[in-house]
């Protein structure tokens, strides 16, 4: 039997980031992961995420940004348009007075970099290839029975074990969910024309296609969200026919494309836990919420969850209060549920707003995009939120935290 302060279930980017944030607080931490430990390897960009400025500041303060920056792609521009229409809007780092709008990173490479730092923390013990057999709560602790027979007792249990969270399901926490009626096709393609460090997204009546720049100037990662039947038909195409379909859907913005990887088909569902805290157990990141990838905010939202939780725990300890008190857990739930709700609603409105090909709605969308592109103030505010420069952010990722710590973007 092992006693500790906090057990984190899940060694994805959120779980590892939380362990690294909590390590300086001298708490004893156990990290449990059902899969193997991340191993150093070149980024393959099979699954990527877009990191905004808030996430970049977080990783810079944790000391992993130099290692990440060796294998990521910064993008200086974004182009969004409606297919077969005049509706178009563009964003640039120059107009925001920034060196980049964001970065496309390989998800596994993020885990690798985080884990290398976590291994250096003497108060963090990792249990990889470990499944949980049983969870039980008492007044003073939470007990985890691992498949190895080991028993972990902790004052606080954090579920960071993804969208299909075992912890959430074991505790039968209520979940609101709906099927987006989209499957995402994810693949890497080689382009004829260089991507020019530009992230692109074109909206079709049946769903959006995103082309995300990779470190190779002639490679992009695509996320093509379409109804399940069409996604399966596209998946079944030959490599050449699939590349031609993507070329046509992207309106040849990068010239003829060639498939450079396997294709992954991912069902898209919205999940939102109605209750993020039960006793001494709380949910973070995808265990608490999952959203449509059309705005590329899923990773950023999860990282802000763990940054907020670490901030609240740190404040409790600084005031010599119990870090696991119900009042603190309730503060975390109110704070992060509100942020998640806002983004979920925005993504749903965005998705529905661009669905369908009827002439009048299509015309209204095009006019709206054009007007937004011309409204400097509104456009700037919208971008500031997406970039992680506005909103109810944890202190360590706010823009003024960059200046105070000497982080250079």
From TrEMBL:
Pathway: Cofactor biosynthesis; ubiquinone biosynthesis. Belongs to the UbiH/COQ6 family. One of its GO terms (molecular function) is monooxygenase activity. SUPFAM superfamilies: FAD/NAD(P)-binding domain. Its cofactor is FAD. Keywords: FAD, Flavoprotein, Monooxygenase, Oxidoreductase. It comes from the Bacteria. PANTHER family: UBIQUINONE BIOSYNTHESIS MONOOXYGENASE COQ6, MITOCHONDRIAL. This is FAD-dependent monooxygenase. Residues 4-342 form the FAD-binding domain.
